[in-house]
From TrEMBL:
Lineage: superkingdom: Bacteria
Membrane-crossing segments per the record: none
Gene designation per UniProt: mobA
GO cellular component, one term: cytoplasm
Catalysed reactions, as listed in the record: Mo-molybdopterin + GTP + H(+) = Mo-molybdopterin guanine dinucleotide + diphosphate
Class in the EC hierarchy, top level: transferase
UniProt name for this protein: Molybdenum cofactor guanylyltransferase
Alphabetized UniProt keyword annotations: Cytoplasm, GTP-binding, Magnesium, Metal-binding, Molybdenum cofactor biosynthesis, Nucleotide-binding, Nucleotidyltransferase, Transferase
Organism taxonomic ancestry: Bacteria, Pseudomonadati, Pseudomonadota, Betaproteobacteria, Burkholderiales
One GO BP annotation of this record: bis(molybdopterin guanine dinucleotide)molybdenum biosynthetic process
The organism of origin for this protein: Polynucleobacter sphagniphilus
Length: 201
């Protein structure tokens, strides 16, 4: 059984947030608290160390007392760049990733993914959801991976490809389907923020 102390939690807050007008999404208020605060609250009981991947407002994120790590490249290269920064910095055998803009993320995310990773001997396990019509949707930024994947990811990114699902095809992967689709709802626009706040009341 993978213990939570063996997992580093990485909160991804390094994006441009263009659809939010360029505002740093992790610092946007959700029900009176910054989104990053919500993510930390949901993750801190599931993992050992926590790191925040951010490319701006480093001082504001540092206030939370966790390591803040930036992408290797300064061009906001997307989640995989955050993954790589996390893999390089992690001191535990496993890395759990989650975006900063999903304030309702499952409180059993790490446990469910860890069980699947051990059962299948996968290198990486990601979350999926099932919609009302029964269709499965991948939630690839919510994943648990072995921390020895840094070289694989660095080689993949050196080809200029930034798509998560393309990297996954090079690995032994599996997925866990979570029943509560709303737990993975994220905030990309002001309208989505208001809708999620109302739904979470």
């Amino acid at each position: 059984m993978i213990k939570k102390e063996a997992i580093t939690g990485l909160i991804l807050a390094g994006g441009r947030a263009q659809r939010m007008g360029g505002i740093d999404k992790g610092l946007i208020s959700f029900q009176g608290k910054p989104l990053i605060d919500c993510a930390i609250t949901r993750l801190k009981e599931q993992v050992g160390p926590i790191m925040i991947n951010a490319n701006r407002n480093i001082t504001k994120y540092s206030v939370y007392g966790y390591a803040v790590i930036a992408d290797e490249t300064p061009d906001f290269a997307g989640p995989l760049a955050g993954f790589l920064a996390g893999l390089k910095a992690a001191q535990t055998p496993y890395l759990l990733t989650s975006p900063c803009d999903s304030p309702l993320l499952p409180i059993d995310l790490a446990q469910m993914l860890a069980v699947e990773l051990e059962k299948t001997n996968a290198q990486l396990v990601y979350a999926s959801t099932k919609s009302a019509n029964g269709r499965h949707w991948a939630q690839p930024v919510f994943c648990l991976m072995r921390s020895d994947l840094a070289d694989s990811l660095r080689t993949f990114l050196s080809k200029g490809d930034l798509k998560i699902d393309h990297w996954f095809t090079e690995l032994r992967t599996s997925t866990v389907v979570f029943e509560n689709e709303d737990a993975f709802a994220n905030v990309n626009t002001p309208e989505e923020l208001h809708a999620l706040e109302n739904a979470a009341k």
